[in-house]
Amino acid sequence: MFDRIDLTVETPPVTASDMALPPPAEGTAEAAARVAAARAMQEDRLRAAGIDPAIARDQAVNARASGETLDRFATPDEAGRALLMRAGEAGGLTARGWTRTLRLARTIADLDGCEGVLRRHIAEALVYRRSTVGAQGDFERQTSHHADTPVF
Known about the structure:
The protein is an all-alpha fold. The chain has six helices and no strands. The chain has helices spanning 16-19, 28-48, 67-74, 78-89, 95-111, 119-148. Helix 4 (78-89) packs parallel to helix 6 and helix 5 packs across helix 6 (119-148). The protein starts with 15 loop residues before the first helix and ends with a helix.
């Protein structure tokens, strides 16, 4: 079930010491500008490949890329591929997880302003995917605990 979730991000409660910190370097407007630039990169990439993003709407964003489009635009560099292979061999990725990791890494690369998917983008995507695997383990422990509890 959790393999269908692209990423999870843990958000601990904000503490008083957190409130005393200076504001983040990147605010909402800056983040929105990076997202807009990443979306423009995605559309430009499709146009350069001779694909009209308006017609290929299902392939116009990385989250929906599949098959040839995913292979063409999200293939990582050799170091990234090796890292992805090690993660797959370690049992941390299903076929669906592999694809979702590539999609997420492509988006991270776009947000980073990179044309190619590099090892660091794969590594970051795997961190978010590992959080999903951890969430699945927590969920399974909770549900198995409830399954052992007799119902009267």
